[in-house]
Structure formats: C-alpha cells, structure tokens
Input
Amino acid sequence: MAAFVLSRLFYAILVVFGVSVAVFFLIRMGGDPTSLFLPPDAPVAEIERFRHLMGFDRPLLEQYLAFLGKALRGDFGMSLRYNEPAMALVLDRAPATLALSGSALALSIVIAVPLGIMAAAFRGTVIDRASLVISLIGQSFPAFWLAIMLILLFSETFRILPPSGRGTWQHLIMPSIVLATYSTAIITRLLRSSMIEVLQADYIRTARGKGLSEWRIVMKHGLRNAAIPTITVIGLQVGALLGGAVITEEVFAYPGIGRLAIQAIANRDFTVVQAFVIVMSITIVTINLLVDLSYGLLDPRMRKA
Amino acid sequence: MMSGFLKQFTESYLAATGLVIVFMVVIGALFGQWLIPFDPDAQNIMLRLKPPLFSGPTGLHLLGTDALGRDIFSRLVIGARVSLLVGVASVVISGVVGVTFGLIAGYEEKYAGRFLMAVTDIQLAIPFLVLALAVAAVVGPSLWNIIAILGLTNWVQYARVVRSEVLALRRREYIQAAHTMGISVPMILIRHLLPNVMSTVIVISSLLVAKMILFESSLSFLGLGVPPQTPTWGTMIADGRNYVGNAWWVATFPGLSIFLTVIGINLIGDRLRDMLDPRLRQMEG
Output
C-alpha cells in the first residue's frame, strides 16, 4: 500500500510539472509578449528595458527554468496589473471559489445520487425515463445562458435574489444551481448505468434468492459496488466544476479565482494566469489522487494491487 | 442496409425528434441566406428592441429585434452556420489527432502508451476553458483559430477510449496473423484496427459535437470566440445580457437555439450509442 501511495504521489507531481511546462509555453506561443504589456507607441529604449527586466530577451528554456526555480520557492512573479504577488492574488480569491464549487458539488450529489439509484432500481419505469430526460436536459444547457435566464427570472422579475456579487447565502443560490446542472446530469447517468450493471451480477441474484428485501439489496449490495465508478466520476466532475466556475463567476460577477483568471486573460496579466492554472491543476490532481487512494478503502481486492 | 439502419434508429421517438431538430438546423445553416426575411446585419435605430411578433414597416419581426434594430430570427438562422461549422470541424480535428494517438498508444504500450497517458493526465488537470481562453487571447479571435483550439484541446477522450480498445484487439488472432504475414505496423493499424474502433469513434464524435457547440458559444459569449461582427448564438446572448431587464427576448432566443440544437445532437448520439456500442455507456465523464 505504501509503495502504491508513493508511486501515485510521484506521478501526481510529474503531472503538475507537465502542466507548468504546457502553460508556460502555450502562453508564450504567440511570441514575445512585450507588445501586449506596453502601449503601442512605447519608445524602443523602453521596450528593451522592459524585455530585459522581464527576462524576455533570454532563450525560452532559460526563462522556463528561471520561472520553475522561483515557482518551487512559491514565487510566481508579480501581477503586471495589480502590482501584487500573483499567487497571493489567486489565493485571496480561492475561498470564494471553494464555497461556490463546494455548494454546487453538494447540490449535485444530493440530487444525482438518489435519482441515479431510483432510476436503476425502477429501470424502465416513469422514474427511470424522467431521470434520463432530466440528465439529458441538464447537459444541454449553455451554463452562461441558464445564468442569465435565472437572473431574468429571480432578480429582474421576482426580485428575490441578488443578481451578482458575494456576501450572503442568497448570493450563492443561483451560481450554485448553474454550476451544478452539468455535473448533476453526468453523475445521475453514470450512477444509473453502474447500478444497473451491478444489479445484474450473480451475487445480487444470490441475495434475492436468500429472500432479502429489494431495499436491502439495492442499498447494501448494489450501492456499495457501484460506489467506485461513482466516486471516480464525482472526482472527474470536480475538474469540470472548477472549469465551469470560471464562466459562472463571470456571469454573476462573483469574486472568485475564475473571474480573476478571465480578467487576467483580458488584461494579458500572464503571471496571474500561470499562478491560477497551477493552483487549479494541483487541486484537480490532489482530488484524483484521493479518489485513487479511496479505491483501496472501498474495495479490499485493490489493496494488494 | 442504410434504410434498415434509419428505420431502427427512428424506432425511438426521442432519437427521431433529435434527427428532425438537427435536420432543421442543418437546413438553416446551408440555405439560411435564402430563407431569412431580413438582412441579418441591417441596422435600424427606429426599430431597436422591438418585442417578438412586432410588425414593422418592412415586415414581421418574428422573434423581435436587438439593440441595433437587427432582426433576431434572421441572425439566429445565419448563426447556425458558425455553430455547426465549429462543432463539426473541431470534432474532425480532435478525432484525427485522438484516434491516431490512441491507435499508436494501444499498439506500442511501453513508450508511446505511457507517454500518451501522461499527456492526457496533464491535459485533464488544466481547466479546459482557461486553456482555451488563454490561447484564444494569444492568437486572436478568428473562426479557424477557435476550431483549431477546440480541436486540439479535446482529443483526449478519443485517445483514451481507442487505446483501451486496441489493447484488447491487439491480442486477437487475426492481428497476430497479419503480423506473421509480414504486414507493416501502420498497415495493421489502418486496415485492421481502425475499422474495428470506428463505431466507438462515431459515437464519441456525435456527443462531442454537442459539447463543442457549447464550448464555442461560451468562448464567443466571453468575446474570445469568432470576431464580434459575425452573428453567432454566443455573441447574441452576450449582446442581450445587457438588456435582460427590459428586452428578455434578445438573450433568450439564441440560448434556446443552442439548447435545442445540443439536445437534438445528444439525442442522436445517445441512440447511436445504444445501437452501435452499448459498452460505451460506462465511458463518459
């Protein structure tokens, strides 16, 4: 088990390292970013001074190694717009995004898990078909449009929820609903199909043969065995949720890291974009690592592997 | 054979509905310019923000007008072109890249396979939208840039699924036989393995087109998609957002168009999956 944990941990670090390479070079793909930071009529001397200051006149590989060396010590450079450390800016906004994605994830699980189980247990009935339609609709909405429609309905028409900002729990309601929609659809679908597969297994037939109640069969034997694929999907959905938070925060003017990232991209504030992507990837990789490790807890057979 | 397939396909009412929706969108995209009542770019400040069913001096504005007095219905029909073009073209790029990687990685497990899995894990750890936005900001908004960005950031699913299929197929006798007969590896990949993964690829593609249309609309909504003067559903929603309090129709109809189109494509994709590849039900995420 220890060797397994260590090898997964090592791989996770490797992935974050890969992300840093990818982001660094992608951002610089358009060539020297100097022109993006200075006004178009800047004098040549000023341009040269800036390039030297930022290190843009050095070879790309050298620039990357310098970036990596500093990043390993927690220094992601200064934000070019706010003149504050880029990482501090991102971490300042992180709790807001955590609150939003946390409540959205909780909402998805509360709706999707019972719905997925019921759809599988009552396969082919009205409940099952309703769950299919709900999940189909849920994954076909453009999130930003759903957000605007909710604002139209609850802020403009009924005036019961604030259209934007952060502060009270009311501010979290609409963004959480918007963010939860897609994940709810995916988790419902997947839990349904895993449950159906599990409920066809031999040991379920045995359980029925023993005369156990249908409720006990589904809840005890079915759910436990469908848990692994479900946790895998929920883990993958965290990545999707954090990505979706970007656009949700933008529409609701919710001051989290997603909105910060969009503003940073619009302002060509690339140190902040880098810090943002690294924070996101560490979060996603950590969650996937925890998901991997949880298999061992849920399925004794995997502890030896 | 084709008509038998279609018959089986449309046995599901939902799938038939999806087919009708998508058919209408395709007609709009292909022949829209001859079907629309107004020039989609014609501005008329006298007719700004008129509600649906408003009858102006030049005719009926079925879905109303936007803030510049342009006919929303006509813009929606023309906007279908961008959505479909981006959806289909980016899926073709993703498919070609992902299937190629998947075939190679499944066949040559040791180096290519491991390398590929690492690359997919890296890509999955980057929030897609931010990656796409950053690249779009660097290369500038244009239709073909968006297609390339979406295509090159969404091939992972193909690669993973094709790889796992090839891993299983590789040990089959007919592949071993082809080997013994001295057929070259590229030939084995293209002639013997590719046809066997095609049904999976078709299913993934149909569902991915729907996702790509959603992605394109998000990028356009944020102003980083196609150039703003092109009428697209995403930019129309962005325009309408500012008037949502006094002119609900401006943002509502383009969103409904996206929603219906995506649902239509998803219905087709689901049906294809049920018919061609029931195993795939496990592989979404």
Summary: Residues 185-221 of chain B form the longest helix (37 residues). Chain B has a mean pLDDT of 87. Chain B touches chain A through 48 residues (CB under 8 Å).
